[in-house]
């Protein structure tokens, strides 16, 4: 959050995933700490990207409503490259945070990208 707030004020804070799984348990404490709204996406089938799809749908709704001045994508998943490009095409800034292993396509699709530990 320190990096994000250096870029601007995060008005919409959401985290997408299946919050019933043990993998996300360590992240639950950060939701309240940083006022992040969890968005529940059940895994109906293995290997599917229901959380990614929900995030992209919500992002496009925010983009078309023009209710935000930019987007910050916290992920190393290069599947969000298209989203970043589309947001930039609409004239909004795109910030990214991800691991050092993040695919170059996503990194370059963002206006700024910070590598996490």
Describe, in plain words, how this protein is organized in 3D.
It is a single chain. The protein is of the alpha/beta class and 117 residues long. It has one domain: 5'-nuclease (Rossmann fold), CATH 3.40.50. The protein is 39% helix and 21% strand. The protein contains five helices and five strands. The strands form two sheets. Strands 3-4-5 form a three-stranded parallel β-sheet. The longest helix is centred in the middle third of the chain and has 16 residues, at 50-65. The two termini are 14 Å apart. The relative contact order is 0.15. The model has no long low-confidence stretch (mean pLDDT 93).
Which short descriptors sum up this protein?
117 residues, 5 strands, 5 helices, Rossmann fold, 3-stranded parallel sheet, globular, two-stranded parallel ribbon, single chain, alpha/beta
